[in-house]
Amino acid sequence: MPVPGEPVWMELTTSDSDKATRFYGELFGWSFDDQGEEFGHYQIIKAAGTDIGGAMVKQAEWGEMPDSFALYLNSVDIDATTAAVREAGGTVLVEPMDIADQGRMAFYQDSSGAAVGAWQGGSRPSMAKGGAFQTSWFELMTKQYDDALGFYPQVFGAAVAPMVDPSGEAGEEWRYSTIGEGQGAVAGICDAAPYLPEQVPSYWRLYVNVPDVDETIAKATSLGGTVLDGPIDSPFGRLATVADDQGASFQVITPPQRG
User: What span, in angstroms and rounded, lies between the C-alpha atoms of 152 and 173?
Assistant: First the structure.
């Protein structure tokens, strides 16, 4: 059972579904299962036959927006969550709605401007994560760290705990907290104000587990993608930031080998 505020669904918004199917199919082995006209041709993304998220094509009436990944966090009461968004200084972009019998969704901007969704489960289970070519970590890169530490507990009932710098090198500059604590952590909140460019708003990002980061980014570039940062080694594994051939960015990570 997901905990309050835990990421339970990831969603790709893409300009071209055929291009996305080709790129992620060749890079990760993902497949895209069209849900038909009843669901606006929403697609379920699968890794090795297991549901790991969804995808939809941008519509002209949405205006200018980049291709991107979004996250939906677990809500135990989506109507109360939506009311709390307004009380906590966020913006409601999509009011709560039923998705057949699968659950209820809504979409917001948090108090720092980061886009984030809420999902109250029905018949659809949450996405699989943590396996090969599945998402493994989720991170809010926020320019208003202190506000975020208040927003997510108030809105989602998330338990937020400060995290100790695993390298021991950042000192007072390390400002990072987790939703959940220790082995129970399900997502991170990072103070990104010192290094996010002025034109880049706060945003949620996701990490995909891969067997070999260097091989993955070489494959991504051969498919028309771009390496935005890295690869680098960290206490959590070797990682890089990549954009697909339509501009949607994500992280890839090879966790450290445990002896």
Answer: 22
Kindly report the number of other CB atoms within 10 A of residue 141's CB atom: 22
- β-strand 50-57 against 7-14: which pairing, if any? parallel
Per-residue pLDDT in tens (0 to 9) along the chain, 259 residues: 678 899 999 999 999 999 999 999 999 999 999 887 777 788 999 999 999 999 998 876 666 778 899 999 999 999 999 999 999 999 999 999 998 888 999 999 999 999 999 999 877 878 999 999 999 999 999 999 999 999 999 999 999 999 876 655 555 667 899 999 888 899 999 999 988 888 889 999 999 999 999 999 999 999 999 999 989 998 889 999 999 999 999 999 999 875 4
Say whether pTM exceeds 0.90. Answer: yes
C-alpha angle 183/189/190, rounded to 5°? Answer: 120
Taking each helix axis from N to C end, the angle separating 78-87 and 145-156, rounded to the nearest 10 degrees, works out to 150
174, 107 in Cβ contact below 8 A?
no
Looking at the chain, which runs of residues are DSSP E strands? Answer: 7-14, 30-34, 43-47, 50-57, 68-74, 91-99, 103-109, 115-121, 135-142, 160-162, 176-179, 187-191, 203-209, 226-234, 237-243, 249-254
Q: Answer for the pair 202, 192: CB distance below 8 angstroms, yes or no.
A: yes
∠236-164-190 over CA atoms, to 5°?
A: 70
Q: What are phi and psi of 51, to 5 degrees?
A: -65, 125
